[in-house]
Amino acid sequence: MSVRYLSCGDTAFSVEFGNEISPQINGQVMALHAAIGQARAAGGLGGLVETVPSMRALMVTYDPLATTRAELQPQIDALIARGLATDAVGRKVRIPCCYDGEEFAPDLAEVAERTRKTPEQVIAAHLASPFKVYVLGFMPGLAYIAGLDPTLYLPRRAQPRVRLPRSTVAIAMDMTTIYPFESPGGWHLIGRTPLWMFDQRREQPVFLAPGDLLTFERIDRAQYDAIAQKVEAGTLDWSLFYSDWSELIEP
Question: What is the reported pTM?
Answer without folding.
Answer: 0.83
